[in-house]
Every structure is written in structure tokens, then in C-alpha cells.
Amino acid sequence: MVRLTSSLLLLITGLSLTACGSSIDYDRQGLARSKQMWQQRLDSLPIGATEAQLRDWQTKYGLKLAFQEPNHYYSSNLPEGHFPVKKHWSKFSPCDAYFLSLTIQTNEQKQVVKKELKALGSCI
Fold this sequence. Notes:
This protein has one domain (about 25-124). Strand 2 and strand 3 form a beta hairpin. The protein has helices at about 1-20, 30-45, 50-60; strands at about 75-85, 95-105, 110-124. A 3-stranded antiparallel beta sheet has the order 1-2-3, with helices on one face. The chain contains 3 helices and 3 strands; from the N terminus they run αααβββ. By secondary structure, the protein is an alpha+beta fold.
């Protein structure tokens, strides 16, 4: 009985957090627009871009990423890519904000080998 009760409690808690998460109030359209804008910008940076091209690209879009070490990933939260959760519906929110994160990987020659844009939430 105790095991069944605790299992039900975990299930109810999980469903409550899921329901709460789906009703989180933030600018979904703004996040989608910003993600599309940054994806287009990222698409303009080709795989194989040289260090000079990468620096020019960063400067063009106002990013400050340090690419001193080869074979590393560099991540940055993006300008115009932060969307706070509005707390008016509840004092408890499983998320504080949603944001865009850019990750770029370079090789030994400091050329771009991987690039990725993600929308993430700072959620519990």
C-alpha cells in the first residue's frame, strides 16, 4: 500500500509539473522569430570557415566568442535570444526563462567543423 501510494504521488507530481510546464507564459512567437533569425545568421557561416571568416562573422553579429583553443566547443547565449517567464500566473514556476544558445566547434586549424543553435529553458 505504501509503495502504491508513493508511486501515485510521484505520478501526480510528474503530471502536475508537466501541465504546469505547458502553461508557462513567455513570448513563444518572439522565441521562434529570434531562433529563425539566428538560424539564418548561423547558416551564413559555412562549415570549414576559416578563423578570419569566423571572426568577421562574430563581429558582424555582435558576438564575443574566444576561439583560441582548437578542438573546443564555444557556446554563447545570444543577443535578442532571452525570453523571461512571466510569473503572474503563479509564484512557483518550474522555469525562469527560455534562451537561445549557439555552439560552434573548431578543429586544429581553427576552422568551423560543427555549429548548432538550441532553444533551452532554465527549468528545474
